[in-house]
Write a structure and sequence with these properties.
There is one protein chain. By secondary structure, the chain is mainly α. It has three helices and two strands, in the order αααββ. Helix 1 runs antiparallel to helix 2 and helix 2 runs antiparallel to helix 3. The longest helix has 24 residues. The chain starts with a helix and ends with a strand.
Length: 90
């Protein structure tokens, strides 16, 4: 059942990726899909409730940032000293 849920989430993400959305819609969708992905991974790994919450929040944050960077066409790059900068995606 867990594998089916993961496959359903992945299929939903692929289906939404092809839609034309506004920046706000893309950010919300990215956050929701990221949260669902984080929760799915936590469940697949058998994490306890606290780790499932952390995975969900981390997934939502990552999904939101990815959606925002996709909308602006910029990517974040690490400098190697712990800081980051934004530049055009390759």
């Amino acid at each position: 059942m867990k594998r089916f849920a993961s496959a359903a989430i992945l299929a939903g993400a692929v289906a939404l990726a092809g839609c034309q959305m506004t920046t706000t819609e893309r950010t919300v969708a990215g956050g929701v899909l990221g949260a669902a992905g984080g929760l799915a991974v936590a469940n697949l790994l058998g994490a306890n409730t606290n780790w499932a919450i952390i995975g969900t929040v981390a997934g939502a944050a990552a999904g939101t940032l990815l959606a925002r960077n996709t909308a602006t066409g910029t990517c974040a790059y690490a400098r190697g000293d712990g800081t980051y900068y934004e530049a055009a995606c390759p």
